[in-house]
Write a structure and sequence with these properties.
Elements (H helix, E strand, L loop, with lengths): L2 H10 L3 E5 L6 H12 L3 E5 L6 H5 E6 L4 E6 L6 E5 L6 H4 L3 H6 L1 E4 L2 E4 L5 E6 L12 H4 L4 E3 L6 H10 L15 H11 L6 H16 L3 E3 L3 H17 L7 H12 L4 E2 L12 H10 L4 H4 L3 H10 L1
Parallel strand pairs: 1-8, 1-9, 2-5, 5-8
Antiparallel strand pairs: 3-4, 6-7, 10-11
Length: 307
């Protein structure tokens, strides 16, 4: 699946995304360009070991002029948030994002503050560096809808990048092509993309297969099932389809499920190949060919749409 499809999927499925890739690929540029194009608020949080939870969520401070305590919102109270190098913060600070990622709200000193709509978290992690980093807790990893590996651009794309940056920064000339209200409307439209019960059962069996795999300690959660469901609807909408196809589900199984899977010790791959085992399990679960195992699924979907 092309990067452009994944990028527009951010708009279609309201959630959080985990970019696990090397530095210099353009993650910050992509996040900023997305915010500018959608005319949304954008904040970047540089995660470091000395970052405190209140630096993310905000604080109540005493205003001497008014004589009252007032709330100063943190950077997470924005529409698009880039959590840069999230694994460099301590687990206590990382946990400050749990409520925001799961419930689209933050609680500070017993005051609950709803987050703006749409709300999108883009977290980055350098998979090469291990010194000075902290592992992400499973509860937080499970809240990431997708884990994406951007990879290096092709030779033609890299040459085009040099041409665009030759005389000026292309970001400075970006104009909004949509609004936050448009994004919310698209998200509502995506929820109406049809998925046949046969495909819904197929999707459910994919996630359930990760829970009984002999090499898996912890399989994909029900949250993963719902996340894959929403992503498949979003991808079908991006492709101009009125209904979800098996290819929509299979192309998203690995980025939606692999990071949620914990392997048993005997099933773990060598340390020189991070993520190989969980991707193999997720990819294997998605390998079933529905077109062959369920003849006539296409006519079933089209018939349901007509009704």
């Amino acid at each position: 699946m092309r990067l452009s499809s994944k990028r527009w999927q951010h708009c279609s499925a309201a959630a959080t995304y985990w970019w696990k890739t090397c530095p210099g690929i353009g993650k910050t540029t992509l996040a900023r360009s997305l915010a500018y194009s959608l005319d949304c608020d954008f904040r970047r949080i540089q995660f470091t070991p000395d970052l405190m939870p209140s630096d993310i969520t905000g604080i109540h401070y005493y205003n001497q002029r008014s004589g009252d305590f007032e709330f100063r919102p943190g950077p997470v109270i924005s529409q698009i948030v880039l959590a840069d190098e999230i694994n460099r913060a301590t687990p206590r600070t990382q946990s400050a994002l749990l409520e925001a990622m799961g419930e689209q709200q933050v609680t500070v000193d017993q005051e609950t503050v709803p987050l703006p709509v749409p709300f999108l978290v883009l977290a980055t992690q350098n998979p090469i560096e291990l010194e000075g980093t902290f592992p992400l807790p499973e509860a937080q990893i499970d809240r990431f809808l997708l884990r994406l590996r951007l990879g290096y651009p092709s030779e033609d794309d890299e040459e085009a990048m040099l041409e665009r940056f030759e005389t000026a920064d292309p970001l400075s000339s970006l104009k909004p092509v949509a609004t936050a209200e448009d994004v919310v409307r698209i998200q509502q439209m995506v929820r109406r993309v049809y998925m046949d019960p046969v495909l819904r059962n197929y999707l459910m069996q994919l996630t359930r297969a990760t829970r009984v795999h002999p090499d898996v300690e912890l399989g994909a959660s029900p949250r993963a099932t719902l996340g894959l469901y929403r992503c498949a609807q979003a991808l079908a909408g991006i492709r101009g389809q009125e209904y979800v196809t098996p290819d929509d589900i299979k192309s998203l199984a690995t980025p939606a499920l692999a990071h949620r899977i914990i392997l048993k010790r005997h099933g773990a791959p060598p340390r020189t190949q991070p993520g190989v085992g969980d991707r193999r399990v997720a990819g294997g679960a998605a390998g079933a060919d529905l077109e062959e195992s369920v003849p006539g699924w296409g006519s079933t979907v089209r018939g349901a749409l007509r009704n």
